[in-house]
């Protein structure tokens, strides 16, 4: 095998570094072409929501999947930043009092706590818009078919049939819209929509940027789906086993709210076994790429073994 | 002149009819390709937010501007629906308790009143996403440069440097983030961002769909800006003169909150004079198009003379 764990962690932190710089540039106070002004309170709060935290796993996946397809540089970086902006918008809105009502995120006050609720809603709205703006900008790709393909993919993964729909199902699972006792199939659908779709798109974006053929694209989508599912099972395990101090946010929330997780449905051992199976599935999807895909193989292991 | 007021109202109501049908189709319960499921509570609330109301002025402008550029049918209809979805998202979020705290919209309970706050936030989020998805879909144009141009234009008009930025300035103008006494230039900037940018883009979208040359596009953008400004002055006049019953929402809100409007700054007569000047400016921008642009000339008159 061409790679090693230390190569992996170097690449992950290198990606986090350039993504941080890319996000900083996108969120500067200077108005971009076609913009009338950038209100300073909004920009402050957007930077607060986005900068200085997170593993930047999603952009890392986009950058590495694009590299596997032979594309490096500005395009994958910008597409990765767009996925991260979209992810950050979802965190800001999910934390709101009427949603999950969280006070802490990454160990700091959530946006509506640090600013106010109206600002947090607008921050989320503007981050979503900016994600699509970044993808549609010619700086992301000189090929407009690539740009509109990226927009379409992110929209499908994040909208009513993806992430936002999953969040609605998640709120329903608390029983707030009538009795809700979720079975295994429903928990899996909810998780696939709420977190899996965007993780899977993070990988697929690399295939779009690389104008991969249908077979390569299908393989990357399969890999992305396995990784997304593994991420969520690992998340359920962490929520059961980790301390709030280690995670920088509350744990055991799902149990408090009576929401079934895969740990409830499969048991802790069953959930860990499923994680291992998903790693194998991800490996199988990458089989055709050989050694070049070693970083992505390590990424799925990182996802299931992470401690935060 | 080739057209008449009765032609105008016929075209406006015909556009409203096909837009309503288009929006209905986009908001059906049936999952689209790439979507995992469409949660029924979310779809119900999205339809509640979007269907059965409004003059559909923005899609009308897109359809008529595209027709002027020689493009008719599915493309302009879909682009118009996208702008309307974006507009509806902004209404749902602006009405939220932490924002303008409105109970009524078009004479009916607002979305967070009819459903709940979490659902209203998600409805707005998903409507924004759907707007970009519709534009990026090949059904809107077979030319990917047109699709990504539409996405980029809508994003710039609606994001942090456009509509969302304008809403943040509007909240600031209430004095909630420190003392705020807005002068004329600031009120104009706020209005241009909050409502002008999207109205102007509604027209520009027609130029993008028609792949207009630079001069024609510039003329349509100028027309759209004048129309957007006229819309807002007329809105300020209506807010001062109309009854809540006629408007289907509260009036005099800006004064209650101590926000300066153009009527405060220019006086009622001054505001009405400005409306007339903006109509002339819009006419001047359309001069090069001759009789074919008659519907757009009537549109700006409709905007300043409307009663709701």
TrEMBL record, chains A, B:
Keywords, in A-Z order: Isoprene biosynthesis, Magnesium, Metal-binding, Transferase
Cofactor: Mg(2+)
Residues in coiled coil: none
Gene3D superfamilies noted in UniProt: Farnesyl Diphosphate Synthase (1.10.600.10)
CDD domains named in the record: Trans_IPPS_HT
One term under GO cellular component: cytoplasm
Keyword presence, Metal-binding: yes
Superkingdom as given in the UniProt entry: Bacteria
Cited SUPFAM superfamilies: Terpenoid synthases
BP GO terms, sorted: terpenoid biosynthetic process
NCBIfam families documented for this protein: FPPsyn (NF045485)
Family to which this protein belongs: Belongs to the FPP/GGPP synthase family.
Protein name: Probable farnesyl diphosphate synthase
């Amino acid at each position: 095998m061409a790679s090693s764990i230390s190569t992996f962690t170097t690449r992950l932190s290198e990606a986090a570094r350039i993504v941080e710089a890319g996000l900083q540039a996108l969120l500067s106070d200077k108005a971009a072409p076609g913009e009338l002004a950038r209100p300073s309170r909004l920009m402050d709060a957007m930077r607060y929501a986005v900068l200085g935290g997170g593993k930047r796993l999603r952009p890392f996946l986009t950058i590495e999947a694009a590299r596997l397809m032979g594309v490096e540089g500005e395009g994958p970086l910008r597409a990765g930043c767009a996925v991260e902006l979209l992810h950050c918008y979802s965190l800001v809105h999910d934390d709101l009092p009427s949603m999950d009502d969280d006070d802490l995120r990454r160990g700091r006050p959530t946006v509506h706590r640090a600013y106010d609720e109206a600002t947090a809603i607008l921050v989320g709205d503007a981050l979503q818009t900016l994600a699509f703006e970044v993808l549609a900008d010619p700086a992301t790709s000189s090929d407009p078919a690539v740009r509109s393909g990226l927009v379409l993919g992110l929209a499908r993964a994040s909208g009513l049939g993806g992430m936002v729909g999953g969040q609605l199902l998640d709120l329903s699972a608390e029983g707030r819209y009538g009795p809700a006792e979720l079975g295994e199939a429903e928990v899996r659908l909810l998780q696939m929509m709420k977190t899996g779709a965007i993780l899977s798109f993070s990988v697929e974006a690399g295939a779009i940027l690389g104008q991969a053929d249908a077979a390569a694209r299908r393989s990357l989508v399969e890999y992305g789906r396995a990784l997304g599912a593994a991420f969520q099972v690992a998340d359920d395990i962490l929520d059961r086993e980790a301390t709030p101090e280690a995670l920088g946010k509350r744990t055991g929330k799902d149990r408090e709210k009576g929401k079934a997780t895969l740990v409830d449905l499969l048991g802790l051992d069953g959930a860990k076994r499923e994680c291992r199976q998903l790693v194998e599935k991800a490996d199988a999807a990458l089989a055709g790429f050989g050694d070049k895909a070693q970083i992505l193989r390590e990424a799925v292991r990182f996802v299931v073994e992470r401690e935060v």
